[in-house]
Design a protein that fits this description.
- The chain is about 15% helix and about 30% strand.
- It is α+β, with helices and mostly antiparallel strands.
- It folds into five domains: about 45-150, Chitinase A, domain 3, CATH 3.10.50.40; about 160-265, Chitinase A, domain 3; about 270-375, Chitinase A, domain 3; about 385-490, Chitinase A, domain 3 (Roll), CATH 3.10.50.40; about 495-584, Recoverin, domain 1, CATH 1.10.238.10.
- The strands form six sheets. Strands 1, 2, 3, 4, 5 and 6 form a six-stranded antiparallel sheet that branches.
- A hairpin with a 4-residue loop joins strand 20 (about 405-410) and strand 21.
- The longest helix has 18 residues, at about 15-35.
- It starts with 15 loop residues before the first helix and ends with a helix.
- PPIases accelerate the folding of proteins during protein synthesis.
- InterPro entries: EF-hand-dom_pair (IPR011992), EF_Hand_1_Ca_BS (IPR018247), EF_hand_dom (IPR002048), FKBP-like_isomerase (IPR051989), PPIase_dom_sf (IPR046357), PPIase_FKBP_dom (IPR001179).
Length: about 575
């Protein structure tokens, strides 16, 4: 209603040029007659009452700005002659270029968005002595109640304000990146038109590829994951003259409060960051290794989605064999035991566009903080490192069958203590090669000299395997520090007693102490103990001598009648020889 009259219109039948000359004449006369006097004469200029001023005013209306506003227009007696509210349409127009009556042009200058003003426009700044036929009488003073809802200029650019900047920024948004973000969208006056939060999911899109309005494409550039921004977009970089549906009117400036969740590029690879590297890393994980590790898994904005610590159990898997997502397969290779590293995995190397479950959304970048506990290869042998050699020259070393006594400390590779012989005060005892200890420890003890100290790294397939044992996790690599305390030479397989020299020529006579032709257990035991005491023979080490002698007696008592006769008595060497002949 208050735009300048278009060239094609006439008022009261006057051509446009005549009308303009008439208005200028009226205004000149008005200015000459309308100066305010002490008695309250006619107004010279617009009277402005700012009855609501917003707390913040980032910009004020200037000449040449494009504004959108609502108004009610009345006469002095309160009678309404026009209202934008009645048409449910804002006035959208450029200020200060003659498209509005002079009084409105002046009354809008310096106005803030959401400011409310009452304007009193004298006739010479309104429609003068002519008025508008059937609507505004001549020489009418006009009263306007105005609220400004939007202001922008063709010279405007996208305005970006950082509301929160994260302490750590692994990367910033660039053209062609794929982003996931939340937003609240409002008009410049604060009217909400859309929000991603109401849909329960982020807005996911490419940047700089034409999928977004131009202003949002520009406003997202340089953003960090976790950053919050306020982005103000002028309409010519948003939805322009057409607006969008019923929620975004034409020529509307848009305000977005944006939280960037994550960003990646389809060309991204796995990113590695070493957080802690233990000294003395002699081996790094390769494809085919079996690894045990702890992890915290989070999205790029820090949202935790999973943690092995919460289950109090490591994640155990083969590396490089396709058992885990490709990005983790790549990220674990090259790690050292005990290393802590951060692995950032783009979605095309994680769970892709679909995500998984209810905690990992589609197209999500995943960040894993990993602590490698241990790893091994199914083909690994026992690793042996001599910590200190024996104090004296060693000519004989431990071998299968030997009875050994040793001290040990056993731990996991991360230093977690499991067992120690020192806790019991006495050394551990074992016969090597007799399946009395785990295979890897048995192997590591062989070849040791008394007084020697060794470090043994035992892979799980030579320890307690996938199932583990009491206090030992499944698939755990074990670290032993062992010291050989003593060694007794063992006996050949199957023997309980051996002679140091040839046995007595008449063995039965020696056993039959009372010469009654029978040898009970008591006589048998007395004779064997005497042989051991005199250094003529020795029993199997590491077992109760009484039990060993009882087993020997039972082996000779063929008919189990509690005594040995000359016919029953046979040396094991003779038995073995007879068995060879039988086989031949």
């Amino acid at each position: 209603m208050f735009r300048a009259v278009s060239p094609s219109h006439t008022i009261l039948g006057l051509p446009l040029l005549q009308l303009v000359l008439l208005l200028l004449l009226v205004q000149a006369v008005g200015r000459g007659l309308g100066r305010a006097s002490p008695a309250g004469g006619p107004l010279e200029d617009v009277v402005i009452e700012r009855y609501h001023i917003p707390r913040t005013c980032p910009r004020e209306v200037q000449m040449g700005d494009f504004v959108r506003y609502h108004y009610n227009g009345t006469f002095e007696d309160g009678k309404k002659f026009d209202s934008s509210y009645d048409r449910s349409t804002l006035v959208a127009i450029v200020v200060g270029v003659g498209r509005l009556i002079t009084g409105m042009d002046r009354g809008l200058m310096g106005m803030c968005v959401n400011e409310r003003r009452r304007l009193i426009v004298p006739p010479h700044l309104g429609y003068g002595s002519i008025g508008v036929a059937g609507l505004i009488p001549p020489d009418a003073t006009l009263y306007f109640d105005v609220v400004l809802l939007d202001v922008w200029n063709k010279a405007d650019t996208v305005q970006v304000s950082t509301l929160l900047h994260p302490a750590h920024c692994p990367r910033m948004v660039q053209d062609s990146d794929f982003v996931r973000y939340h937003y609240n969208g409002t008009l410049l006056d604060g009217t909400a038109f859309d929000t991603s939060y109401s849909r329960g999911g982020t807005y996911d899109t490419y940047v700089g590829s034409g999928w977004l309005i131009k202003g949002m494409d520009q406003g997202l550039l340089g953003m960090c994951p976790g950053e919050r921004r306020k982005i103000i977009i002028p309409p010519f970089l948003a939805y322009g003259e057409k607006g969008y549906g019923t929620v975004i009117p034409p020529q509307a400036s848009l305000v977005f409060h944006v939280l960037l969740i994550d960003v990646h590029n389809p060309k991204d690879t796995v990113q590695l960051e070493t957080l802690e590297l233990p000294p003395g890393c002699v081996r790094r994980a390769v494809a085919g290794d079996f690894m045990r590790y702890h992890y915290n898994g989070s999205l790029m904005d820090g949202t935790l989605f999973d943690s092995s610590y919460s289950r109090n159990h490591t994640y155990n898997t083969y590396v490089g064999q396709g058992y885990i997502i490709p990005g983790m397969d790549q990220g674990l290779q090259g790690a050292c035991m005990g290393e802590r590293r951060r692995i950032t995995i783009p979605p095309h190397l994680a769970y892709g566009e679909n995500g998984t479950g209810d905690k990992i959304p589609g197209s999500a970048v995943l960040i894993f903080d990993v602590h490698v506990i241990d790893f091994h290869n199914p083909g690994d042998p026992v690793e042996i490192k001599i910590l200190s050699p024996p104090p004296e020259t060693c000519n004989e070393t431990a071998k299968p069958g030997d009875f050994v006594r040793y001290h040990y400390n056993c731990s996991l590779l991360d230093g977690t203590k499991l067992f120690s012989s020192h806790d019991y005060g006495d050394p551990q005892e074992a016969t090597l090669g007799a399946n009395k200890v785990i295979e890897g420890l048995d192997t590591g003890l062989q070849g040791m000299c008394v007084g020697e100290r060794r470090q043994l790294v035992v892979p799980p397939h030579l320890a307690h395997g996938e199932s583990g044992a009491r206090g030992v996790p499944g698939s755990a690599v074990l670290l032993f520090a062992v010291e050989l305390v003593s060694r007794e030479e063992g006996l050949p397989t199957g023997y309980l007693f051996v002679w140091h020299e040839d046995p007595p020529a008449d063995l039965f006579e020696g056993l039959d102490l009372n010469k009654d032709g029978e040898v009970p257990l008591e006589e048998f035991s007395t004779f064997i103990k005497a042989q051991v005491s005199e250094g003529k023979g020795r029993l199997m080490p590491g077992q109760d001598p009484e039990k060993t002698i009882a087993d020997m007696f039972q082996n000779q008592d063929r008919n189990q009648d509690g005594k040995i006769t000359v016919e029953e008595l046979k040396l094991k060497s003779d038995e073995d020889q007879e068995r060879v002949h039988e086989e031949l």
